[in-house]
Amino acid sequence: MIDLRQLMLMIKENKEMKANMSLEFDCLVEADNSDMLIRVINYIINYLTPLTEKDIEISLNAYRGGSTLSFAISTGLQELPEFSDKIAPALEPYNATCEVKHQQGVYAQVILTFS
Fold first, then answer.
1. Going by C-beta distance under 8 Å and a sequence separation of 6 or more, which residues neighbour residue 25?
2. Distance (Å, rounded) from C-alpha 43 to C-alpha 30?
3. Which entry of 5, 52, 59, 87 is 20 to 30 Å from 38 by CA?
4. Is the full-model pTM beyond 0.90?
5. pLDDT tens for residues 29-50?
6. Which domains can be identified in the chain, with CATH numbers?
7. Are 81 and 48 in contact (CB under 8 A)?
């Protein structure tokens, strides 16, 4: 089992990342190995960080049957750089999906949904 809350706290500490985090407890993923998930999360953080001058807003929420992990930034960009097409297949072992949202000139958000 992977505890997403503990995983995010470890990543924040290891990256010495500036982020505002709101993390609920009991957000678990049935998987034995977190290596690829860590790579995906690092990719998302590295993708979003240069797009803003402010801290990333990270939230982890539990819902019936799963969890959502959201990474949001405020940005003045009209277009986002291309997001890797390798993320979706990398999330399959974690029964997760990825969605990128963008409101031009306002915000960008990447949401991982675990079910």
1. 5, 62
2. 21
3. 52
4. yes
5. 999 899 999 999 999 999 999 9
6. 2-114 (3.30.565.10)
7. no
